[in-house]
Design brief:
single chain; 663 residues; alpha+beta; 8-stranded mixed beta sheet; 6-stranded mixed beta sheet; 20 strands; globular; disordered N terminus
């Protein structure tokens, strides 16, 4: 944002000018069109953002410092020419802020829209703004050490092509994953091919537990998480004034009509299990700080003592992060997060002149870095400690979230704003980590599910017409949270009630406009869009691209959570499944409605053996034609086995009832 927030006089003028739109909004609450920001939303902006330090422009200097060049053509495409990213979309942030975007979030989007190759310091460079995360290269004596590889092969290749065009055609001498989230490892095969990496024995370094956690998050729970990610990352929104403007920790791109990028991870050859482990790669010294159960279950920071550079991975971004993500994941440990930042300051603070992270822009200067890390650490510590204090005084998660506020020394720092995580849902996550989902009130111990409770609520409130009238009245008064609560009950009671859906959409939309968090904005606006237009297929498939890299043990873990009990009970079976001439072999029992498996070996009962190649099994699971088909007998036996499972639904209701699964 290039100017201060509107003065109260200007906001009042805008509110008056928009009053007709607000009145029309109330009158046309039954239409399926997007609505403008209401006077109540404009007042909300003034009330919540006027105290922020708008005259502080340092972040704009940091974000642009060291720019070398952008991606040629401002686009990234697959080999067949289909685009996966149009970087020219980021030009929209050169214009004025639309009234439908929170001023603080618009500033965040402007900063994250700066895209291309940047020099960080001697021998350290970053490609930023072409995907959610950053790709970092460190120049060794002969080649490139690459830290984090973006989400897709196509983007990683485009990044490395730009690096080589500007810095020289050097080989990749190491790949390092800072943590187990897909935007940091999914593009690995675009940095270096698996065959070349194996042939040249290029080290692939990751924190301890990386592969297990990457699989757990992106494969086992992948379908449900991907569906929720369509809301959090606005996959169905497009980009624009009333759509997605930022992903909070990285730029937002329109995914509608774009091809899906390719995910290909290279398995680690070395894992880091404790702080202080070191490596020397191509003449560059590295020291690792092991930081598990912080931003990711498997995460580490990297210190380059010879360069006085500290890479804090994703534990010190220029935004409040998530203790629990909206897409779903394991609850993170806010206390461990703060404690590990304290350790980072103690171990590396005095020797650091440059700080880089897996998202956002670098920081320079020892004093500024220490201030940044300390204030950011204090924010996570305050979040944890005060949430627990309120918990121990009897407040539940929702009550804590409503009451928790950062003190001015922390709240007034740009890098502590909630562009990704929020104090609200993070406070609930701290409560969940210690206390679980149950708030201690027996009335909430065995509640009715939404579709059973909703009709009873609607009847108790006087019927559908009364609930709809009260919801519309709340919208007119700017009480959008209450309107959403009322109208959501009605939608779940009467899923075909079009007027209820449209009114609920209006209440969600205004909350989306008001949100500082990109994740909240996208979730609210995605819900509004689906209520108006219906549920549509979308999402990033993190499962299919990962299956070829999974061990047989991991593939069977994936299949186990897709087993249909009725089929398994009707057709129990036992077999030994062997891949690639027995290089991997698992004894499988389908019994009592579950799949049990263990390695074939001593003490394991003998069973009929089914042999095939890994490629044949992967092709069958992913419904692709095999290059080398199985013979009729083995194909029939494999079909019978795979017939016990069902693929998860790619799309199900979130803001409307999901289809029921009967067990």
């Amino acid at each position: 944002m290039t100017r201060r927030i509107h003065s109260k006089a200007v906001v009042a003028a805008i509110s008056l000018a928009a009053f007709a739109a607000g009145t029309a909004h109330a009158q046309d609450a039954g239409t399926a069109e997007s609505k403008p920001a209401s006077p109540a939303t404009l007042r909300y902006f003034e009330e919540t953002t006027s105290r922020l330090p708008w005259n502080d422009r340092e972040d704009f200097e940091l974000a642009s410092r060291g720019f070398i060049a952008g991606i040629p053509g401002s686009a990234i495409a697959k080999e067949d020419g289909r685009r996966i990213r149009d970087l020219s979309e980021l030009d929209m942030f050169k214009g004025p802020r639309p009234d439908s975007v929170n001023p603080s979030l618009w500033r965040n989007a402007q900063l994250l829209s700066q895209s291309g190759l940047f020099k960080v310091t001697d021998r350290v460079y970053q490609v930023r703004g072409i995907e959610l995360a950053n790709l970092t290269v460190v120049l060794g004596k002969t080649g490139y050490i690459v830290v984090d590889t973006l989400t897709t092969v196509e983007s990683a290749k485009a990044a490395m092509d730009l690096v080589r065009a500007k810095l020289g055609d050097r080989p990749v001498v190491a790949v390092i994953y800072t943590h187990s989230h897909i935007d940091h490892f999914g593009g690995a095969a675009g940095v270096i091919g698996a065959e070349e990496a194996a042939r040249r024995k290029v080290p692939i370094i990751a924190p301890g537990g990386f592969l297990k956690e990457a699989i757990s998050e992106n494969v086992i729970a992948g379908p449900a998480m991907s569906r929720r990610a369509t809301y959090a990352f606005g996959h169905l929104l497009g980009t624009g004034a009333r759509a997605d403007v930022s992903d909070g920790i990285g730029p937002a791109f329109n995914r509608l009509g774009m091809a899906t990028g390719t995910v290909r991870m290279l398995p680690p050859t070395r894992e880091i299990h404790k702080t202080g482990e070191t490596a020397t790669i191509d003449g560059v010294q590295l020291e690792f700080q092991y930081m598990p159960n912080t931003e990711a279950p498997a995460e580490m920071a990297i210190y380059f003592p010879g360069l006085r550079v500290l890479d804090m991975a994703e534990n010190a971004n220029s935004s409040l992060h998530n203790i629990l993500t909206l897409r779903g994941a394991q609850v993170r440990d806010a206390k461990a997060w703060a404690d590990d930042l304290t350790e980072s300051i103690r171990l590396y603070g005095a020797g650091t002149d440059t700080l880089i992270t897996s998202h956002f822009w670098p920081h320079w200067g020892n004093a500024k870095i220490l201030d940044y890390l300390s204030a950011h650490r204090d924010m996570y510590k305050y979040l944890h400690d005060q949430s627990v204090r309120m918990m121990n005084q009897g407040l539940n998660g929702t009550e804590i979230a409503e009451n928790l506020k950062l003190p001015p020394p922390l709240a007034d720092r740009w890098f502590n704003q909630g562009y990704y995580g929020t104090l609200s849902h993070n406070a609930k996550a701290v409560y969940q980590r210690y206390m679980g989902w149950y708030d201690g009130n027996p009335a909430n111990l065995n509640p009715l599910p939404p579709q059973a409770a909703a009709p009873k609520y609607v009847a108790a409130m006087g019927g559908a017409d009364a609930v709809l009238a009260q919801g519309r009245k709340a919208i007119e008064g700017g009480d959008y949270r209450w309107a959403s609560e009322l109208l959501s009950r009605l939608v779940f009671a009467e899923p075909d009630n079009r007027a209820a859906k449209l009114a609920l959409a209006d209440s969600l939309e205004q909350q989306g406009y008001e949100a500082t968090s990109s994740m909240w904005r996208n979730a609210f606006l995605s819900g509004a869009k689906e209520l108006r237009e219906g549920v549509k297929q979308a999402g990033f498939d993190s499962v299919a691209g990962s299956i070829p890299a999974l061990s047989l043990d991991e593939i069977l873990n994936l299949l186990a959570v897709r087993l249909v009990p009725e089929r398994a009970l009707a057709q129990p079976m036992t077999l030994d499944l062997a891949l690639d001439d027995g290089k991997e072999a698992q004894h499988i029992e389908v019994r009592s409605g579950v799949l049990i498996h263990q390695p074939v070996g001593p003490g394991v009962p003998a069973a009929p053996r089914l042999e095939m190649t890994r490629a044949q099994l992967v092709a069958a699971i992913t419904n692709k034609p095999p290059i080398d088909p199985l013979d009729e007998d083995r194909a029939g036996r494999l079909k019978a086995f795979l017939g016990l499972f069902e693929a998860p639904r790619g799309t199900f209701g979130l803001v409307t009832p999901a289809p029921q699964v009967v067990n």
